[in-house]
Structure formats: C-alpha cells, structure tokens
Amino acid sequence: MAKNTIHSIEEAVEDWCKHQFESPSDYYTKTQSISVFIESRREDGVSH
User: Fold this and answer.
1) Angle at the Cα of 11 (from 17 to 45), degrees rounded to 5?
2) Which residue among 9, 14, 22, 39 sits deepest, i.e. has the most Cβ atoms within 10 Å of its Cβ?
3) What does the radius of gyration of the chain's CA atoms come to, in whole angstroms?
4) Are residues 12 and 6 in contact, defined by beta-carbon separation less than 8 angstroms?
C-alpha cells in the first residue's frame, strides 16, 4: 500500500486546499474554532 494514499474525496480536497494556502495566511479546518464569540452564539442557539 502506498504511503500517500488518499482515503476519501474530502481528504483529497482538504490536502489540495492546504497546498494552496502554503503562505503565512491562517486557515481553519471544519473542526477548528474560529471565534469564541461565534461558538458561544452557536451553542446558545441565538440567531438574528
């Protein structure tokens, strides 16, 4: 089995995107929190 085998399309897209952002810019994956404020509002179920 090859070392760099991609197990899903999602992983392939995520890897491609990471390579596009190989600069000093920050990027976030779907499991990372971007803002404590946003997370707290989401958990409270508040929407405007």
Assistant:
1) 85
2) 14
3) 16
4) yes
Could you tell me what percentage of the chain is helix, strand and coil, using 3-state DSSP and rounding each to the nearest 5?
Answer: 45, 0, 55
> Other C-beta atoms within 10 Å of 14: how many?
14
Pure H helices in the chain? 9-20, 36-44
Question: According to the model, what pLDDT value does residue 31 have?
Answer: 79
Alpha carbon distance 34, 37 (integer Å): 9
pTM across the whole model:
0.35
Q: Rounded to whole angstroms, how far apart are CA atoms 32 and 18? A: 14
Please give the span between the terminal C-alpha atoms of the chain, in angstroms, as a whole number. 50
Separation CA 13–CA 8 (nearest Å) = 9
